[in-house]
Amino acid sequence: MTGPRYTPLVAALPATVPFIGPETQERARGRPFAARLGANENVFGPSPRAIEAMAQAAREVWMYGDPENHDLRHALAAHHGVGADNVVVGEGIDGLLGYLVRMLIAPGDAVATSEGAYPTFNFHVAGFGGVLHKVPYKGDHEDPDALITRAAETGAKLIYLANPDNPMGSWHDAATIARMIKAVPEGALLVLDEAYVDLAPAGTAPAITPEDPRVIRMRTFSKGYGMAGARVGYAIGSAPLIEGFNKIRNHFGMSRIAQAGALAALADQAWLAEVQTRVAEARDRIAAIVRANGLAPLPSATNFVTIDCGGDGAFARRVLAELIARDIFVRMPFVAPHDRCIRVSAGRAEDLAAFEAALPAALDAARRSAG
Amino acid sequence: MTGPRYTPLVAALPATVPFIGPETQERARGRPFAARLGANENVFGPSPRAIEAMAQAAREVWMYGDPENHDLRHALAAHHGVGADNVVVGEGIDGLLGYLVRMLIAPGDAVATSEGAYPTFNFHVAGFGGVLHKVPYKGDHEDPDALITRAAETGAKLIYLANPDNPMGSWHDAATIARMIKAVPEGALLVLDEAYVDLAPAGTAPAITPEDPRVIRMRTFSKGYGMAGARVGYAIGSAPLIEGFNKIRNHFGMSRIAQAGALAALADQAWLAEVQTRVAEARDRIAAIVRANGLAPLPSATNFVTIDCGGDGAFARRVLAELIARDIFVRMPFVAPHDRCIRVSAGRAEDLAAFEAALPAALDAARRSAG
With an 8 Å Cβ cutoff, are B258 and A255 in contact? Predict the structure, then answer.
């Protein structure tokens, strides 16, 4: 018995996961983390109304969710001033990125992104046989001009840019992004990942022009709305592109509970404003803690602060390991020169107190093991 | 601006949905259904412990779910007496079918299924460019011998069979399925969709032999466990095949709430037994109602009863339309000769009372419009 015959593409892929979850690390360590500050989760959580809506929906979970996600799509359309046919809801931005790549990328097709940008996007591109063409960041920012140039050179069908950026926390203003959209080469599509935009300064997101065929905007309830565990992302784009998702998506893939929670969360913009305030306070607190330890916090338009540890990648990896050994779950950028940094999510006072308590000894241990 | 360039495969696909949701019909009708008996949902719902676990998890939804689904996979492995590396959890059987087809089917690859079997499987095969080779049912049963023969003739990489079957409610005994597994041609994989098996008579499911590379078993929390809206399916197969899902799946795609709910539902086997009793009673009630109206209920190993309306497809479609017009949500098989039937899900007493009240007039109207 030879067993199943995989496609050549899938046979050649590694079994991989873009991110190791904190639970996996906890199982390996044999004990839980004291502070969960590595996955840019929003510890302030969703609106209490969303929690109540999800608890209520759990009692009705014998019913499939609406496969059209009608109510949520229409609420999102009204919120953003676009048509409901400009909105598709999916299983997180990760799920939508997978669908989008599948729609556009056949083996050998070119894709442009930045060296060190979101690995899950790269996972999907590799999974459909696309060829990634990467440009460096410009300092700590993704470089729109370099991405456009590389896309034009390679005939890329997709261009990925996150604004604000993960893992660096940096951002471009709306005018810069609007110029980038105008410069998208003929036949290319800009994937503008705005997962963190709900936590960014006003003026970060360009106006949404839903019928522009050059850009698709990706948004999520995982960050500002505090519902990472519910898996609700959405995309805004031209109606023909959005309709294309219906050719391939898992139509009944959205949880009824998640749909109800997202609808309630969207309706509670006062809670989002409160979260924005708490996240800003947490960013300031993280910056103060790391400055007090002689490190440099990078400016952030997200719910995390990327911290320059002042050495090379090897040193930052030691700092990360020492923090994890002290029960602080944090992550760091994967590639140089950004791997001089670690990345700490906005936490509650008690989370950041645990980080503050652990950092001096972690730094000391990292420095001693260097010598 | 030409907009994005789709792959040739996706460009050629229709925008389609395998099933229209009842919410879509309600919006079109302008009023809700009185009884929701069309989607084979389990109106008796999940264990109260599962509802409580989901409500609790909603309060922790700021955290991503464990991307390894560790606790649920291990509980399922223990429940079925297999290894945790024989189990993959995904966004419903629909989601897992999509991943499986992607792993095995490239454009032009052959797939064997039955004419009138699960359309969502066909949706995925078409979506990856596979070529469907269909065999007829034998009476009201899927035909294992014909499927095996057709698979051998066409070099099919996948063979689909549901046991029990949807939409006919029929089933094969374990020995028949075990013989089919032994007959799977070299290099083919049998997708044994056991979505309804928790509601079938003892002796329907063959013993699970997890390392057999010829079969993958698909199970779900949507039917017996009453959690259709949570989107939790799982597959049991050989470790290398199960590991293959990690090459392509949406690793963070499972809701934290759904994982918690499924874990609690699995632990409450007493509730499942109670549901089995209620479903059996409802099947008997449906059979009595339809017999009293001169129609023939088919034997069922599921939570629905397929009803022979005693005429042709056109007549059954009229009966269906007249029931829907009377606020009873039901569905029917798509293809002849099964489209002589309609399909009614096991409901509560009040749901079936509404069906009972509507059926005589629906039949009368269907007969009158024939003349």
Answer: yes
